[in-house]
């Protein structure tokens, strides 16, 4: 598994592009004639300061374009690229397909989100951003191990060493802590931004380091791309949309629902996710089969913990939002299981 951290070969994700559009170009693949016609705008630090030439972030658009190694992931929201600068520093660039706000408001929102992220150990830090006529992107911290999606799919399709139960539980706990921090934000609104909702929870947006600590990325990015309706806690979340981009109402219930989906994916992938659509009889059958549902071996005390986490995930995806647990309740259970 650690060999993945040393592999810098550019990859293209087909999760979004397959059957819907052609893979996106990386910044480095744009034609030189096109680049020559562009303004070489400055990449702005997220704290709003203007970096000095001998310190801090001081990049221009063409510096970033030349540093791009290639596309490492795609979604309906945008394109993720790895960039390696001449000084050897690696970063991740989140390039948006579209944005819903003008330059000044984009910079304000990024600054607000970055400030929140700096206060949490389980959120990916945002370093800088650029808003130009052609490109809008945010520069974030880089994690050589990649995303949780990469780790899970690596074991399922490419023969990499699967995650152990201990590492899976640790990742689930760290994701819950990140969500708990977001949901505790007060005030809940900052002008026209909703601060106490993530809005885009997927395994692709969970980064993992070499010690299997998990970090949640893309906090608030949905509010940079589209105007998303806010329904608070009034209605239950809907299942993921098959459309290229699902403009779901921003609510903590939706975050909890998608967290439940992520937990099931961590536990057993497609076998565990089958329990979403099955009835109570099928769920009892899954409990009887036990080990066949999960992707990792477990025994003894761990068996009880695995089933408690599975039951918690099933509660998170309950169709009745009144039956959904709060993130505080989830954290209480996970902290007891992990201790």
From TrEMBL:
Keywords: Kinase, Transferase. The keyword Transferase applies. Residues 66-339 form the Protein kinase domain. The keyword Kinase applies. GO terms for molecular function: ATP binding; protein kinase activity. Pfam families: PK_Tyr_Ser-Thr. This is Protein kinase, catalytic domain-containing protein.
């Amino acid at each position: 598994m650690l060999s993945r951290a040393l592999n810098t070969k550019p990859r293209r994700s087909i999760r979004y592009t397959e059957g819907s559009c052609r893979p996106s170009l990386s910044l480095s693949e744009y034609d030189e004639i096109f680049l020559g016609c562009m303004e070489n705008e400055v990449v702005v630090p997220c704290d709003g300061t203007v970096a000095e030439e001998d310190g801090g972030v001081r990049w221009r658009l063409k510096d970033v374009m030349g540093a791009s190694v290639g596309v490492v992931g795609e979604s309906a929201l945008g394109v993720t690229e790895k960039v390696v600068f001449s000084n050897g520093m690696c970063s991740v660039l989140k390039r948006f397909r579209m944005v819903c706000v003008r330059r000044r408001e984009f910079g304000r929102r990024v600054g607000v989100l970055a400030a929140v992220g700096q206060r949490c150990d389980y959120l990916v830090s945002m370093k800088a951003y650029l808003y130009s006529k052609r490109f809008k992107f945010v520069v974030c911290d880089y994690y050589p191990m990649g995303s949780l999606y990469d780790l899970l799919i690596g074991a399922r399709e490419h023969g990499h060493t699967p995650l152990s139960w201990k590492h899976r539980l640790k990742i689930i706990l760290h994701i819950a802590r990140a969500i708990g921090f977001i949901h505790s934000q007060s005030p809940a609104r900052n002008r026209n931004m909703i601060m106490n909702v993530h809005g885009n929870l997927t395994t692709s947006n969970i980064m993992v380091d070499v010690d299997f600590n998990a970090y949640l990325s893309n906090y608030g990015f949905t509010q940079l791309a589209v105007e998303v309706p806010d329904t608070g806690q009034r209605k239950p979340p809907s299942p993921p949309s098959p459309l290229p981009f699902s403009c779901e109402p921003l609510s903590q219930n939706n975050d909890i629902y998608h967290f439940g989906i992520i937990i099931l994916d961590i536990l057993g992938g497609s076998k565990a996710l089958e329990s979403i659509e099955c009835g109570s009889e099928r769920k009892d059958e899954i409990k009887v089969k036990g080990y066949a549902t999960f992707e990792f071996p477990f025994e003894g005390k761990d068996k009880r913990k695995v089933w408690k986490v599975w039951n918690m995930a099933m509660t998170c995806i309950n169709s009745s939002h009144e039956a959904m647990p709060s993130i505080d309740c989830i954290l209480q259970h996970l902290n007891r299981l992990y201790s």
